[in-house]
Structures are given as C-alpha cells and as structure tokens.
Amino acid sequence: MTRIVLFENIHPSAKEVFVASGFDEVVTYPGALTGTELREALRGAHVAGIRSRTQLDQAVFAEAVDLRVVGCFCIGTNQVDLEAAALKGIPVFNAPFSNTRSVAELVLGEAILLLRRIPEKNARVHEGYWDKTADGAYEARGKTLGIVGYGNIGSQVGILAESAGMRVLYHDIEAKLPLGNAHATSSLKKFLAQADVVTLHVPGGKDTANLIDAEAIAAMKPGAILINASRGTVVDIPALHRALKSGHLSGAAIDVFPVEPKSRDEALDSPLRGMQNVILTPHIGGSTQESQENIGREVAEKLKRFITSGTTKGTVNFPEISYHEQAGAARIIHIHQNVPGAMGALSNLMGEYGLNIVSQQLQTRGKIGYAITDVDGDVTDQVIEGLRAHPITIRCNLI
Ligand code: NAI
Question: CA separation (Å) from 250 to 115, 137, 146, 225?
C-alpha cells in the first residue's frame, strides 16, 4: 500500500490523479506543519506533497525512512534540502510550467491598461473626477514589446502580444528559437531603446540582481512602460521610482518586490505605493484557479509515474530517466552511490539471485547513481533485502 500525504491545501486535482490510478491512501492537511507534527505526519508516508511553506530539511529526511519521493506543488524548491533528499535516494519534482499562461495573460493585460493610462483614470473616477481625455492613451497595436528573458513565460507573452498586433523583440543570454515573428536582439541597451513596453522574465539570483538599474532605465525610450512579474531583485526600485517621478517612464506594473510582506497583515514598504499609472500586485502573476488545478495535476502525474514506473524525467535534484515500457517480469529501481564498479556489483548480485537482466537504464548525477532494471526471474522479498544490504545501495524497491 502506498501512503500519500499532501500538505498545504493542495488542489483536489492532485488527489483525483492518485485515486484514478488506484492509490486510495491519500491523507490531506489544510496547512503546513513543522517540527514533531510534520515528522509524525510523514511517519509511514511514501509520497509527500508540499507547497512553499513546508520545510523539508536533512533532519526531516533522516526520520522519514519510508519516504520515496517529494512533490513541490509550486515552482520554487528552496524549501527543500535537495542535496539531502538526493543522498537519501528521494527525487523531488515541481511544476515549472503550470502557471506560465497565467503570468503571460496578466502581463499582456497590464501592458494594454498602462498604455491607456487606465490605472490612473480608474483612480480618478473613483475619486469623483471625470477627466475624459485621449492624452497619453495609446493602442497596443503597432507598439513594440521588449521581452527580457525569452523562456517559458517570456515566449508565451510574445505570442499573446503578437495576437494583439504588437511587434515583439526579445533579449536572452541564450540563443532561443523565435516564436511567431519575434526578433532577437543581442545588446540589452539597444533593445531597451526600441521598446514601448519592457517586460522582464528572467530568473532571480545574483546574475540578474539589478539587471534593470538606473543606467538601463535611462536607456529606455522616453514614455516607456516597465513590467516586472519575474523576481523582485531584478529591478532597482529607487531608480524606477525616480524615472516614474521625472516622467521618463510613463507607467509600470510590479508584481514582485525585493522584500515582500510575509503575511497579509504586513504592509508593503515601497516608494511606488500611491504613484500614478503604476499597478502593484501581491506576487499573484501565476496565481489563478487554472494554474492551481494544473499544478495539482502536473506534479501528481510526475509522482504517480515515479511510483509506478521509476521515471524521474523533470526531477530537480536526481538523475533523470525517461519513461520506457517494462520489458521483463519485474522492475527493480536501485539508487546507489556513484562509484566505480557500482553497476558491476548490482548486475553480479542480480545474477547470484538467478535474475536475468532484460533491460537496464542508468543515469548518474553528482554522488547518486540511479538504475532501472527490468528482469526475468523470481524477485522475492529476500532478493530486494539482499540488494538493499549491499554497501553501495542507498535505496532499492520493486515497482
Ligand atoms: P525560464 O527559465 O523558462 O526562462 C528564463 C529565461 O531567462 C531563460 O531563457 C534564460 O536564458 C533567460 N535569462 C537568464 N538570465 C538572463 C539575463 N541576464 N538576461 C536575459 N535573459 C536571461 O523561466 P520562466 O518559467 O519563464 O520564469 C521566468 C521568471 O518568472 C522567473 O523569475 C520566475 O521565478 C518568475 N515567475 C513569477 C511568477 C509570479 O507569480 N509573478 C510565477 C511564475 C514564474
């Protein structure tokens, strides 16, 4: 029996995937647990599903002896000690694509609203003013959208923007296939000078910290708009504030901040608050009902495929082996130390137990080796225990 424990109110679509595949023992918790409560909840669990608040560290993995796989039902995986998980033979999966469309739609919507100065007009009408004017209001059609970071989200934004009649330029540090009629530009500065709307879709981290600083903002077209729904550290906020105040930029939409409030009771501390034609949102770029449902399904499918076939395609911390049909009478997954002779030892052991290897896949990553072996022969509990007892073995299971 496979015991699945899901924390943090994960969307019911995840449970549906498990139950439809015959995994009925699914325990759900509405929130994140810590300390003893978390360890108790994980006792006997083979699969754990978390979102961003559950911390899984080395101590948790040391106690959760039955745990075989972890699913992060979100994008980020900082809440998990990935190295500790790998060393315990536990692959970790996440959902890198499920909210791509949600972010892309928001960005296009914001670009259109800001080009029309709607945030400012909306506030004025709420205050009782009727400033009916076309001044500073433009169509998106024919304007240039500049995308910094042409990955999953950036390229989707480009497709949506083209369907609204925008010309799309992008800048990426890697060579990327342009979708639709998008054009790549190698110089960030030249690129910034051409775009009416610049939208950022790069990863966070030190390589992109203050990528859009005072100099980059100065290189932007007068009257341009800046949208950031990537990571808060990418934009120099005081420099953006100055550019909006001086009128060099005509608007901005910011969904992510260098320091974000930790709860709904905390206020956002930002000089951008109260500024005209500036949309501020609480890091909800990817937060829609559809994305939550997609995340539930995407991660549950990956976890199910791992428990039913050993497939680790898309893992964030483990050697990746793609799906292939089981060839022999039984499938054994073997996670071992990545040392010379490991596969020889495994094959010899199987031979000693009278197993004939029909098919074998091996991948290694860092200190971990991962083999999926399809065999003919009688794979008894004794055989699995024997394989587990070998000094190179980290984990061994019969699928
Ligand atoms: P991705 O990894 O598919 O794309 C990132 C792209 O940026 C890659 O093509 C990469 O080559 C490029 N890149 C990296 N450094 C660069 C640099 N210095 N200059 C130009 N290009 C650079 O990532 P994805 O999924 O498109 O996500 C993009 C960002 O959106 C990430 O920061 C992610 O955390 C954030 N995000 C925000 C959400 C929200 O709720 N606001 C939701 C989902 C993602």
Answer: 8, 10, 16, 6
Both 86 and 114 in one domain: the answer is no
Testing ligand 1's pocket by substitution, the residue of 74, 108, 172 carrying the most ligand atoms inside 8 A of its CB is: 172
Rounded CA separation 361/245 (Å): 60
What's the CA gap between 17 and 7, in Å, rounded?
A: 16
The model's pLDDT over 141-167, given as tens digits with 9 standing for 90+, comes to 999 999 999 999 999 999 999 999 999
Q: Which residue has the tokens 């909306």?
A: 122
Whole-angstrom distance, CA of residue 231 vs CA of residue 228: 7
pTM: 0.84
Query: Of the residues 101, 117, 171, 231, which is catalytic?
Result: 231
Do residues 80 and 221 share a domain? no
Q: Which domain holds residue 149?
A: 101-280
> Would you give the DSSP letter of residue 267?
P
Of 39, 283, 305, 390, which is the active-site residue? 283
Per-residue model confidence as pLDDT tens digits over 180-223: 999 999 899 999 999 999 999 999 889 999 999 999 999 999 99
Q: Are 59 and 162 in the same domain? A: no
- Based on the domain organization, do 223 and 108 belong to the same domain? yes
- Tell me the pLDDT band of 97, cut-offs 50, 70 and 90: confident
The answer, yes or no, to whether any atom of ligand 1 lies below 6 A from the CB of 127, is no
Q: Is 148 in the pocket of ligand 1 (CB under 6 A)?
A: yes
Is residue 283 annotated as a catalytic residue, yes or no? Answer: yes
116 shares its domain with 265: yes
Model confidence over 125-144: pLDDT tens digits?
Answer: 999 999 999 999 999 999 99
